[in-house]
Amino acid sequence: MTIMLRSSLAIAAGLLVATTAAAQTARPALDYASAAKIRDTCLDWASKNGKRMTVAVMDTHGMLVAYAHMDGASYQAGEVARWKATAASRFGRSTADLARLNPAANVPNVATIPGGLPIYTSAGVALGGVGVSGGKIDEDVACGTAGIAAAGLSADKPAS
């Protein structure tokens, strides 16, 4: 009886594991290497252009993956970069696009200053967002765009 019970439990456990595993869907995620490439390329861009910037790279959940605050960048630039990255990563849109939606002022995590960009794979899978602050808004955007491109990713969701 004990052998039969053990066999039944083993089979049931095997079926449970197989059923659970099959229900999972693998998705690409922003890894540290890609986030660091985005950050480092943006820092190089800022240095070459004489800017003191802050760069924040977040995954789709708004978790910080890579961050840098250049010497001489303002404290506020760091706060704004994280705010922009949070908005771009959670909404999958640039902060310039979010501003065009004219959101209410009290909507949480909605940045409306350009310089936050979403990060997509070539297949259109959202990976997160980058936020850049410390330059003029067109410089923040250019810096973030350069970083995303250097990582082989896109700030634009491909058309379906």
TrEMBL record:
InterPro entries: GlcG_carb_metab_protein, PduO/GlcC-like, PduO/GlcC-like_sf
Pfam families per UniProt: HbpS-like
Alphabetical UniProt keywords: Signal
Highest taxon of the lineage: Bacteria
Keyword Signal: yes
Keyword ATP-binding: no
Cleaved signal peptide residues: 1-23
Protein name per its UniProtKB record: Uncharacterized conserved protein GlcG, DUF336 family
Organism ancestry: Bacteria, Pseudomonadati, Pseudomonadota, Alphaproteobacteria, Sphingomonadales
